[in-house]
Amino acid sequence: MRRPARAPQRTCVACRQVRPKAELLRVVRTPAGEVLVDETGKSSGRGAYVCRSRECAQRAVGQKKLARALGVVVGSDVLECVVGLLE
After folding, report:
1. 27 pairs with which residues across the strands?
2. Residues 9-86, CATH architecture
3. 61-75 burial, b if ≥16 CB within 10 A, otherwise e?
4. d(CA 31, CA 1)
5. Do 68 and 45 form a contact (C-beta atoms < 8 A)?
6. pTM of the predicted model, to two decimals?
7. Residue 51: is it exposed, middle or buried by C-beta count within 10 angstroms (0-12/13-18/19+)?
8. SS3 label, residue 35
9. Per DSSP, which regions of the chain are E strands?
10. Which residues lie closer than 8 Å to 53 by C-beta, 6 or more apart?
């Protein structure tokens, strides 16, 4: 008898809570070096996950946790894009 498939788990870079991948927002550094919000979760590049809350998004950018996870400088334009998707 087969076990049911498990939902993939990911950790928010801001609050460090483990949640199902579908509940988090993925921010990706593309091979070209630009930072984008990946709504599909399938873009190629280095990814980091953030909870779908304004507090986590602000903490991830403000405390440079997102920049550390992606290995590049993340500007406030990424924060605006994330907050825009949350609303």
Report:
1. 37, 48
2. 2-Layer Sandwich (3.30)
3. beeebbbebbeeebe
4. 42
5. no
6. 0.89
7. buried
8. strand
9. 9-11, 18-20, 24-29, 35-38, 46-51
10. 86
Instruction: Per residue of the chain (87 residues), give pLDDT as tens.
Output: 788 888 899 999 999 999 999 999 999 999 999 999 998 989 999 999 999 999 999 999 999 999 999 999 988 888 888 888 877
- Which sign, positive or negative, has the C-alpha torsion 8, 9, 13, 15? positive
Name residue, tokens 């825009």. 84
User: 3-class DSSP state for residue 72?
Assistant: coil
* Cα–Cα dist 29/69, whole Å: 10
User: For the chain, how many residues are written?
Assistant: 87
Q: 């930072």: which residue's tokens?
A: 35
How is the chain split into domains, by residue range?
9-86
Return d(Cα 63, Cα 61) in angstroms, integer: 6
Residue 32 corresponds to which tokens in the numbers above? Answer: 């070209």
